[in-house]
Design goal:
The complex is a heterodimer of chains A (808) and B (219). With 808 residues, chain A is α/β, with parallel strands linked by helices. Chain A is 48% helix and 13% strand. The relative contact order of chain A is 0.05. The longest helix of chain B is centred in the middle third of the chain and has 30 residues. Classes of the chains: A alpha/beta (808), B alpha+beta (219). At the A-B interface, β8, α13, α25 and α26 of A face β2, α4, α5, α6 and α7 of B.
Chain lengths: 808, 219
Amino acid sequence: MDFTSFLKNNIVMLDGGMGSLLQARGLAAGEAPERWNLTRPGDILAVQRAYFDAGSNLVIANTFGANPLRFSEEELSRIIPAAVAIARQAAAESLGSQEKFVALDVGPCGQLLAPYGTLGFEEAVRLFSRAVALGAAAGVDCIFIETMNDSYETKAALLAAKETCDLPVIVSNAYGEDGKLMTGASPEAMVAMLEGMGAAAVGVNCSLGPDALAPVVRRYLSAASVPVLLKPNAGLPRVEDGRTVYDVTPDAFAASVSELVREGVRLCGGCCGTTPEYIAALRAGIAGIQPVPVEPKDTTVVSSYTHALTFGKRPLVIGERINPTGKKRFRQALAERDMGYLLFEGIRQQEAGADILDVNVGAPGIDEPALLEESVREIQAVLDLPLCIDTSDPAAMERAMRLYNGKPLVNSVNGKPESLEAVLPLVAKYGGVVIGLTLDENGIPPTAQGRLAVARRILEAAQRYGIPRKNVIFDTLTMTVSAASDAAAVTLDSLEGVRRELGCHTSLGVSNISFGLPARDRVNAAFFTLALARGLSAGIINPLSESMMGALRAYCALSGLDESCLDYVAWSQAHPLTAGAEAAKPAAAGHAAAAGEEPVSALRRAIERGLTRDAARLAAEALQTREPLSLISEEVIPALNDVGEGFEKGRIFLPQLMMAAEAAGSACAEIKAALKGGKTASRSAFVLATVQGDIHDIGKNIVRLLLENYGFAVNDLGKDVPPETVAEAVVRLHAPLCGLSALMTTTVPAMEETIRLLRQRAPWCRIVVGGAVLTEEYARAIGADAYGRDAMATVRYAEQVEAELSAG
Amino acid sequence: MNVAFPAEPPVSRREVLRYAGCRNGEAQGLPLDECLLLLKDHLSCRVVWEIFPLSLEGDVVDLGFARVASAKLSSALSGCRQALVFAATVGLGMDRLIARYERVSPATALLLHAIGAERIESLCDAFCRERDEALSPSGLALRPRFSPGYGDLPLSFQRDIFRALECEKRIGLTLTDTLLMSPSKSVTAIAGISPCPAQPAGGRCAACGKPDCAFRQQS
């Protein structure tokens, strides 16, 4: 019988712990147990045979840490086949009469993925692919990915397994006492992502004992449509008389796990601290329990790396603002690859109440696949909302879906054959909820029946690709009501039809309804309310619009989704209705300036005191009477100089300096906006980077802020930047200045190498370095022109170089 | 191997300000309270530890799982026959929070960095106090902790500690090729267990030979 068939109708008995048993046989602390497959095969065989003898159906080969990061290719290609052969031999030698299978064990690779570590996602996929290829060639029955405490690494491992072999893949994660993975994911988020990608079974192992893991397992059971696994520790470890002991006995362990098997767990075993004795007790404990059938869950779920979001409980808000259509400033940001601008748009939408962020970076003349990939990567580094990957370019869609850390919403597919053929395989492979647009090669049907017919065809096609109904939602297309008076009615009728007749959820881009009309927000809000009443599950709207968010809050209160209207009341108190909206703005309170003070000197004071909002407001006021450029040179720069001098003399300290710099930045943003064309005479280009291998960039970020304040055109390349990238940027911009930062002695060699490359490629460039371990002498020794003791010192150096250049 | 999920120790504002670079210890004009509020639910404290037998031969320290030459560590452990080795982290949530504010408010990010440093140091202090109390009934005491990179103890000793404590598996703490820890607000350390009452402590900076350090504790 193959493993998949066995899993379908049986409770799968797994094995128990390995590490402590090998330690008892002499494995030293810190020694790699995988080497014992080659040097002590008899010991591994004995342990695994004991598990089969105790009743295990599936024993995992001794390959937990067998990956190319820990072993050379030569050693790895001996370790994995040897490990699989030992497990097979254990199965053959055991006298147990149960069905016996062998899995390749895949544990964490030992490195955290970028951006919080240095390992790239695709690099991680390659590492795991190598191990899986060796395991599959050695003839395992399935792949067992386990003890993963990072959702992103889990995705890399599962993707590698699915791309490398056709074997069933079991995925098990390690949860903390807070019921989350180390990197923050909830059980529901993991289930959504892993099921979407085609895991054969999902579950939890390690970390805690069975009782402590029970709440997490129950959440798996209520979310998962595939079998659920439990492989807990024998409680928490502690050391007694020099020996590690665990606090749960075999009988107590078996009783706790058996109870969860009764509730629906379909694969069970033990992890750290469990032995064949535990497995034998568990085998006896589950004897006679009928396997609980796995019920498919009919819920539409998307996820981020922290949480899952279910459609249908309450209307969801998909924030539409990360989209260049009709936005000049946004296009400029995309052309300049200004990710800070995108992130700021994302953060504002999250703070305003968005549930999902739509990400669309398509514009003429832009390498959309590269930019969408970069945007998704940057946004998911700092924002924990599920993303909606919005593109009509299948290449861009695939790259974004591949590296997205969760189960995305995908916008969109339509009824045209080429769209179905391009998009649906991606959804089937990477998982996701896809938005179907009710249009096809004949255009947008003018009637609700026509749109519903297209929706049906899309749904049928999706099901042919193995995508379940719950993972397809429909957008019935908002048409402009000023062009056709029945436009709203057709869209809404189609919407209701999709909900009632197809049983699918819906989304709608709302704002198109009011195109060409005055006071568009009013029409949008009314249409949004109508759509919600007809069953709209998610609106693609601007969360910064008070009328839209107000309409949503009011709808929830009216439709019984907001108990005692508490949410509506709280929101309305924060967003009061006023005739003159200006009067309600909080900026009126807490003025920095004393009454009667000149706005100009008030601006200077606000900057010096680090009052960001006041500085922006006062700059706007001062612009009524003053020339923008003189405001910068006569107010902003002197304020910065005062603060900088205070810092240099030890009167104020770094945090106050930074606050002042931010306040100056907000004033400058107002002033620049007032300049025609938004241009100021920029100072020299300054390329800034934290060197390769280093992920600590606080110092570099402080330097960037101050340099920008002083008007330098800073090109910040970020952290962990290869020498090649720095040299390329300096040459491309012909930058006269480059700043490099490194935190530790271990990353200074990368700094030295970067300097060497810069000397070859850009001999004109002056290089200033900084970082915790650097000194004046150290900086000279590695070939830098200057040592930036702190951020102000770096600014002073840049000014000095600029003065020399203009003099020479 | 022992794994613990300790509660967060109380915050020392004074220490936060010291890490932020406010040498006068005043939070004048700084949104410190707002920043502390941001932390809610973002920290996840975890510690893995074990006690190892210890032998010293001159400057060479042998902890059973590894040998390392370090005069400073050897002197910090003199007279001890066992050592506590531990790794602690406040989790990745802290790094995510910092990354988020780096884009919108670098000053806030700076304060969050300082708070993160204070959190992990306080966590280690509280953990060491608890271990010291657990040892005292047996007439033993814990010496001040000592980390790779202090004095002449090479940073590369991190690799040995990571292997011995299985840091990534036990508490999700990882090490880059360049020996940086991720999550970043994390500490690994060694503390001697001595039979006599602990030596008079000069603060944990006393053993360090870098008197001009900007963050040196004034004892």
